[in-house]
Amino acid sequence: MQEFIAFNEQRAEIYWWMSSLLARELTNEDLTEYHGDEMFTFLSGLGMTPELKEPVEAFRNAINTLKTREDAQLELAADFCGLFLSTPKSGALPYASIYVGESGLLNDKPAQDMNALMEEYGIAQRKEFNEPADHIAVELDFMGNLIIQANQELDEEKREALMQAQLAFVNDMLLNWIPAFAQSCKARDDFGFYTASVNLLVAFCQLDAAFLLGEE
């Protein structure tokens, strides 16, 4: 059981890391960490999983290329704004509603569904992050919290229900749109750091869905 709990904690940490990566522009301090030994070790561990080897290597290459980019932090911040804070025509907006909503506008059904899920599981959106509930960072943060809820549940039946809720969430609220989001990033991200990030996220979600399916 302790091994299961530890593995779940690792899963939650990855979702939270991806959430923070896509929530805001990276600072100089963030970039220093990305070039550090801890990140190298973390990515090396992820890359040992065959399904993640290629996207991890691409992400690592994107990090290494940052070292040769003049004014890397400012340029990367400009990439973030151009992709995620612009318009559907010029950017790759990180909201599920844009990809799977009925209107193609913000705050469509996916955002309403996320609000309902957060209320159902008692998981609140961070107050300082004032975005629609179907923003990728909100959804990934929710998934991390859902994983920890399962870890804290002592009743085996309820814990299993929370694991099944995670599987449904990954399939129905993440993998139903983030592959299209990744394609949108690829088409508009000239430097490629955020494309590599989202491709890694897609691969991890697919791997996690397979893990959760095996838990049935």
As residue ranges, the low-confidence spans are none
Q: Report Rg.
A: 17 Å
Please give the alpha-carbon distance between the first and last residues: 16 Å
Overall structural class, as computed from helix and strand content, comes to: mainly alpha
| Oligomer kind | single chain
Number of DSSP helical runs: 11
Q: Report the count of strand segments.
A: 0
Coarse morphology = globular
Question: In this structure, how is the largest beta sheet organized?
Answer: none
Q: Give, in order, the helices and strands.
A: HHHHHHHHHHH
Helix content: over 70%
Q: What is the average of the pLDDT values?
A: 96
Beta-strand content: under 5%
Summarize the topology.
Elements: H1 2-21, H2 28-34, H3 37-47, H4 50-66, H5 72-84, H6 96-100, H7 109-121, H8 136-152, H9 156-174, H10 178-188, H11 193-214
Plain-language structure description:
This protein is an all-alpha fold. Helix content is 72%, strand content 0%. The protein has helices at residues 2-21, 28-34, 37-47, 50-66, 72-84, 96-100, 109-121, 136-152, 156-174, 178-188, 193-214. Helix 1 (2-21) packs antiparallel against helix 8 (136-152), helix 8 runs antiparallel to helix 9 and helix 10 (178-188) runs antiparallel to helix 11 (193-214). The longest helix has 22 residues, at 193-214. The chain is globular and about 55 Å long. The protein starts with a helix and ends with a helix. The mean pLDDT is 96.
